[in-house]
């Protein structure tokens, strides 16, 4: 069995945001899958997805601090500046983290670890709403 849905996420500020519950709210069909694989894909080049710590918000703050230092804005060697100083750094951060996740499904739920959650990594100051495609294959 296959299922595919497009989900629009509300606009968020720049940073790393847990979206696990928001994704699950949009997937009541998940309970029908005994075993399978869920793919989450973001349709943007200036935001990304990752799995990480779902309990302590300082982890998300530290991620933002690290990536801002590792990929700073306004570097003189950047040529792509069409949409502001956060645009090219957002593309680089998105490439580093990635645009999709694969998560096992079992017994009608995501088989995430105890402390794992899905992050929307918003790399733009004003990124707007984001679209993700959820695809589940299983039985």
From TrEMBL:
InterPro entries: UPF0047_YjbQ-like, YjbQ-like_sf. Gene3D superfamilies: YjbQ-like. Belongs to the UPF0047 family. This is YjbQ family protein. It comes from Sideroxyarcus emersonii.
